[in-house]
Amino acid sequence: xxxxxxxxxxxxxxxxxxxxxxxxxxxxxxxxxxxxxxxxxxxxxxxxxxxxxxxxxxxxxxxxxxxxxxxxxxxxxxxxxxxxxxxxxxxxxxxxxxxxxxxxxxxxxxxxxxxxxxxxxxxxxxxxxxxxxxxxxxxxxxxxxxxxxxxxxxxxxxxxxxxxxxxxxxxxxxxxxxxxxxxxxxxxxxxxxxxxxxxxxxxxxxxxxxxxxxxxxxxxxxxxxxxxxxxxxxxxxxxxxxxxxxxxxxxxxxxxxxxxxxxxxxxxxxxxxxxxxxxxxxxxxxxxxxxxxxxxxxxxxxxxxxxxxxxxxxxxxxxxxxxxxxxxxxxxxxxxxxxxxxxxxxxxxxxxxxxxxxxxxxxxxxxxxxxxxxxxxxxxxxxxxxxxxxxxxxxxxxxxxxxxxxxxxxxxxxxxxxxxxxxxxxxxxxxxxxxxxxxxxxxxxxxxxxxxxxxxxxxxxxxxxxxxxxxxxxxxxxxxxxx
Length: 483
Prior knowledge:
By secondary structure, the protein is an alpha/beta fold. It is 36% helix and 16% strand. β3 (44-45) and β4 form a beta hairpin. α1 (13-24) packs parallel to α18 and α8 packs parallel to α13 (317-328). The chain is globular and about 70 Å long. The mean pLDDT is 92. It comes from Nocardioides albus.
């Protein structure tokens, strides 16, 4: 009997994850990718000086090493090597004060003064239980957890606005450290649910660290593609799917696309109700990125920052909250929140001689069409006086550039959707991965658990597809995992 077949549209981390799950269950899988290489948000390129390896989008991967699915794949066999900095994250404040995130929660707490004990009380229980709840945290919210009490410990923190959870701390150091992580949500920090992203990143950092992939983020999806091919799957690059006529015949089809992109592809085949859900999917603020070739290390005012893989440049909790509120309102803040990656600290192979690649982006309004270069550089110079004089070359990626680079990044939204509480729960439909067309499923970062290089969107979508195959009596369609 002929085995079940599947087509996956898009070879980003989630598309490849979905394909791997299906191939592991005996389904014959073909992945179609519009670009000439796999990767989506994980590609790496020489964007400035020769020999410097710049991550095009994603760069630091706490959720990659925390992902239950990626951890079970043994991607190290296929060339992936995680590299860890001495310090996971640095968040400088004006003057000489810097707050540091270490993998050790005790070491982090020791640097938080009077808030050290409180930091351990807030995050310690979730860190200790993380392995037992990771599959649920990194999945659909509307389901019964296997460990309800342990999940509740995370949930009561996650549902809060970040500004409310920050009240657990008395001093600015702990408040700022948490605010910088919560700002990864690209949402005003006084909105419900914004504490979830900050808590997730901090807990992942304490449990697994904030590593980089040796040689560049592209190593993650290259390893996944190699595993898929070993399992019998096929990846076809340079193939754009514009409509249903571009798809081969298969039993199930999974789309690593935005909801709007999916609606465009399937057209009139999509029933009215799911079409309205796909079309009203809301996209969030954008990223404006600078890739810099810098001679020597960054001259941080506090030398400890030079040991960190990631640096959050935003100042106090109040400053970060103001920046997030402004961009959500469509206004460019004078001092935007800037994320800076020093991947070369953990992975010297990224550098060339005394030139180092610096990755930095500001959070800006959706579809922002202005020039934020000066604002990004000013935030770096604020904490690293003299930095500009070390810049040898600069490559700018605007929101429009990101939208052209990846059709999922509508308006420069690299998270593939606004992290509002409603959309965190209903992403983009109550059914999660179902699209309203039997046998077709969405598996992109618009589905639970949302953005990040963890593959869990594809993992859960693939299990939904396997249940569909089993229900229709297709061979080789066993779903042995919940999701």
